[in-house]
Amino acid sequence: MTSLLVLSLCLGLAPSSATAKVEALPFDPSAWKSSPQVELRVTESGKPVTYTGVPLATVLKDRLAGKPAMAALRSLSDQVILVSAADGYRVAVSAAAAAMDPKGERYLLALKRDGQPLGDQQGPVRLIVAGDPMHVRWVRMVSSLSLVKIDAGKE
After folding, report:
1. 82-111 burial, b if ≥16 CB within 10 A, otherwise e?
2. Cα 142 from Cα 122, distance rounded (Å)
3. pLDDT tens digits, residue range 111-121?
4. What are phi and psi of 154, to 5 degrees?
């Protein structure tokens, strides 16, 4: 419920008028290890680092299948992917923005850092958001992904 309240306030909605539909998204790091991997080069503490993993868009693949590209993106325009960590940290990412990044150049579910599996304090999965200057939306120890659709009701 707290997430709904925060999301409602971020969208400028009165908490009492908003409802949310929450659906679990596929979260299978083992399967992702056998999927085609992409590399994303970023800077951490002034040093270049290479993360390897799968694009966040991978978890939306079934929702986009069989639809014309623009219709698929529009179907996601009022939804966010809620990325939850084992330590309780959560970040919301626009589902449409993630879907528009099929190569993982901006949103990556990282499985490795500089060729090595992520350690217990970082993995097994870490969300990397390239271009996020303070790394606020980077999530270590990702434990689940959910698709959240906000219905603001009639105005």
Report:
1. bbbbeeeeebbbebbbbbebeebebbbbbb
2. 8
3. 999 999 999 99
4. -85, 140
Among candidates 148, 144, 146, which has minimal Cα distance to 28? Answer: 144
Strands 79-85 and 142-151, how do they pair?
Answer: antiparallel
Number of domains in the chain: 1
Distance between CA 4 and CA 19 in Å, rounded? 8
Model confidence pLDDT, tens digit, residues 23-65: 999 999 999 999 999 999 999 988 999 999 999 999 999 888 8
Q: Tokens for 134? A: 């303070």
Domain that holds residue 135: 2-151
In the prediction, which pLDDT does 141 show?
A: 98
Q: Is the CA virtual torsion 113, 117, 122, 124 positive or negative?
A: positive
- Quick check: helix, strand or coil at residue 113? strand
Residues across the chain: 155
- Whole-number pLDDT of residue 64: 84
